[in-house]
Each structure stands twice: as C-alpha cells, then as structure tokens.
Amino acid sequence: MSGHGDPVPMIARKGAALCGVAEVPGDKSISHRALILGALSVGRTEITGLLEGQDVLDTAKAMQAFGATVERLGPGHWIVDGVGVGGFAEPADVIDCGNSGTGVRLIMGAMATSPINATFTGDASLRKRPMGRVTDPLALFGAQAVGREGGRLPLTLVGARNPVPVRYVLPVPSAQVKSAVLLAGLNAPGQTVVVEAEATRDHTERMLKGFGAELSVEDTPEGRVITLQGRPELTGQSVAVPRDPSSAAFPVCAALIVPGSEIVVPGVSQNPTRNGLFTTLVEMGADIAFENPREEGGEPVADLRVRHSALKGIEVPAERAASMIDEYPVLAAVASLAEGTTVMRGVKELRVKESDRIDAMARGLEACGVTVEEERDVLVVHGRGAAGVPGGAIVATHIDHRIAMSFLVLGLVTDRPVAVDDASPIATSFPVFGDLMRGLGADVAEGSL
Ligand SMILES: O=C(O)C1=C[C@@H](OP(=O)(O)O)[C@@H](O)[C@H](O)C1
Ligand SMILES: C=C(OP(=O)(O)O)C(=O)O
C-alpha cells in the first residue's frame, strides 16, 4: 500500500543573516522527462545532475517496470538503456508514483498508445488528485481508463491497440496534460497536435526535439500550437539537468526576508515558462542581480545574487500564473512580510496540487497572525510590513513539500518560531533543503513548538 512514513515535525526560528552560496539540486520536471524519454529511446541516455528526490526515484523505478534498464552510477549520475518508442513491456505489478503528479501523468501518457495495461497508484495526496484531465485526452487515442470516482487513483489504463493521432486543445493550463498527450502521440501514426492558450513549461517540447522527434511550435491567435510527428526513432542522449528554479525559490525568498542577508544561487533557470516568481519579486522591490547569463543543459540560466530587501505588496497578474505555479506558496509567505497587500489572481490550479495550496497557505498564515482573503481563483495576503509576523504556530502541511518549505522560510523571521507538522514530503523535491538552509546560517531543525 502506497503511503508515506511517520511524520517528521520541523521548526524554524529567527536567527542570523543568511550568507553563502546555495547550490540547489537538479530540476524535477527535467529529471522526470530525462528518465522517461531515455526509456522511450533506442540506445543509452546518460544523465548528470538528476534530482534524487523521491518523486524522480519513483519514476526511475516505473521506467524499469516498463522494461528499460535504469542504473545509478553515482550522485546524480544515471544511465537509461531504452526500449524505443512503442517498446514498453507490460509491468508485472502496480506502478506506485508516490507523491508525484508529474510522474503518474507523464507515464500514463507514455504507455497509453502501447498494447499493454498498467495499474497506477500513489500516496494519500496523489490519490486525491484529478486524473480525468489526462485520461480524457488519452481516450481520444483509444486508451481506456478505469479508476475510482472522479477518475482518481488507483486507476488501470488499457493502452490503445490501434492508436490514432489526436488534436487536443488544453482545457486547463497544464504542462503535465500537454506532456501526457505529446508522449502518447509518439506511438500514434501521423501528427498529434496540442494547442495551449497559455504557455506552460516547455521542457517536453525542448527535450523531445533533443531526442530526435520532429516537433514544431507555432504561436497563433488560438495559442501555442505544438505539432508532433508520430513514430519517430528517439535516440539516447546526454542530458545535463540544470538546477531547479522552483527549489531555488526557497533560499532566494529566505534571503530577501532575513535582515542583513546576501546569498548567491547559481544556475537558476531564466526560461520564461519558469521564471514568473523572479519577475514578481523584482516588482515587489527585491534586490536580485542576474549575473553571468548563459546556457546550461539547454536552458537559459543566470546566477542570482540576492540581498535582504524591503518589499511592497503588488498585484500578480493571472497571465503569469503558469510561469510560477509552484512558487505561489512561498510568495504568499514573503507577501505576509511586505508593506501592503499582494493579490494573486488566476491561481485556481493551486487547489489540485499535492494539497489545496490556497487553503493550506491561508490557514497556515492565519495561524501565524496574518490576514488573508481567498476566492476560488484568488489569494490575497495583507502584508504586515514593519509590524512583522507573530508566528508561534504549528502549521498543517497536508503531505505537501512546498507548504512545508514555505512555512519553514517564514519562521526564519517571525517573532515566535513556526513549526510544520510534517516535513518528510520535502524529500520528494528537495531532499537537501534542511542542510542547504543550515549551510546558509538558517535555524531550521527537526522538532516542534
Ligand atoms: O510538467 C511538469 O513537470 C509540472 C507541471 C506543473 O503541473 P501542472 O501541469 O498540473 O500545472 C507543476 O505544478 C508541476 O510541479 C510540474
Ligand atoms: C505540483 C508539484 O508536483 P507534482 O504535480 O509533480 O506532484 C510540485 O512539485 O509543486
């Protein structure tokens, strides 16, 4: 039975200024894709900088279950000997994707057009998340899904025996849905087309091209039109995974709010489909210098020099949501310390993440003494500015790594410490979070109030 272990409470206390270099681990999105595309390729894929978080380890295990050879050579250094497009074997057991929406949705896409069946499950968080958004378009290829009420996991997917290509207009701005459709399109004859009204992270498109697929992207009045030619031969590649901007967000935000801090976070993605948080922070008055712009692992990156800053509340436009979707929790934490109100619009997708992140942030911030308003698609945080945030609460994280890390960042400046009831999910995306933050001088430790 999938689950997670005993809860690990963690506490953050006010302390010294943060300083030093924060080398965050590899990008989670790119790590999943490197393993999956490696498994769908002919020959060997060599990956360096792979994120060894639980989400990605679960995807590595799944790729083995579908017939690929996946081996760890050293820290972050992995090889995948793939089976080629259409070469997936039927797994002998249930595929457990743990806490990972990206893992389960991309893998469902990758197997949906092969003549095999697979059953998927996950932990208590993943089993609550909607899968219909992926199984609906996969049904157009000819795959059939039988899950729990609302299409929830555990779910069995019967792969299409005679797949047909699909044209699909995304009803939600989701890179996971887009990617599932494109991965399914690999083993359908002819052209599969995905149209997205709002640009979401584009790693699948970039990496599919890198592995040899014929794929074009066109900006049209309808949105971004992505056309993939089916049945390509993908060939194994060397993939150097760049650092994860969504993990970088935590030390960056911590340095902005802890007085006297100055840190450097090297190699942070400047991919416009991922950098909305940094744009927002600069608008709030953050002192962030973007140094040494360059390319790493096919992504534009820069070194971020971040200094403690007085921040003001702003309106974050709905159009920016997709480019910072995983960063709203930590932005909400930072906004509670700003002078004035921060309004985050177009954020309803936060309600179907590892937890309902609007609700989790609102309840946690209120417990810390912050006034918050929420609507279905909007989160408003009334910043306390110079008055500071009282803290002194134990916050419920609902098996959500980003909620845990956001409140541990906030606790570095609150009058009284902030504890989280369970920090163990941090290992899904940022296993070295605690060590990295302590290395910068932060007072975070296991324990509670
Ligand atoms: O494709 C991806 O790697 C991801 C897409 C986003 O999810 P949605 O596609 O549900 O927006 C994001 O929240 C997730 O952390 C990673
Ligand atoms: C939403 C996230 O991940 P996933 O959807 O892959 O579980 C995240 O990492 O914030």
TrEMBL record:
Keywords: Amino-acid biosynthesis, Aromatic amino acid biosynthesis, Cytoplasm, Transferase
Pathway: Metabolic intermediate biosynthesis; chorismate biosynthesis; chorismate from D-erythrose 4-phosphate and phosphoenolpyruvate: step 6/7
One GO BP annotation of this record: chorismate biosynthetic process
Reactions mediated catalytically: 3-phosphoshikimate + phosphoenolpyruvate = 5-O-(1-carboxyvinyl)-3-phosphoshikimate + phosphate
Positions of the Enolpyruvate transferase domain: 14-435
Protein location: Cytoplasm
Predominant localisation class: cytoplasm
Coiled-coil spans in chain: none
Binding site for 3-phosphoshikimate: 28-29, 33, 174, 176, 326, 353
Residues reported in the UniProt entry to bind phosphoenolpyruvate: 28, 101, 129, 176, 357, 402
Entry GO terms, CC: cytoplasm
Active site: 326
EC number: 2.5.1.19
UniProt GO molecular function: 3-phosphoshikimate 1-carboxyvinyltransferase activity
Record's keyword annotation contains DNA-binding: no
Family annotation (Pfam families): EPSP_synthase (PF00275)
HAMAP family recorded: EPSP_synth (MF_00210)
Main function: Catalyzes the transfer of the enolpyruvyl moiety of phosphoenolpyruvate (PEP) to the 5-hydroxyl of shikimate-3-phosphate (S3P) to produce enolpyruvyl shikimate-3-phosphate and inorganic phosphate.
Family: Belongs to the EPSP synthase family.
Assembly, per entry: Monomer.
Protein name: 3-phosphoshikimate 1-carboxyvinyltransferase
Organism whose genome encodes this protein: Paenirhodobacter enshiensis
Name of the encoding gene: aroA
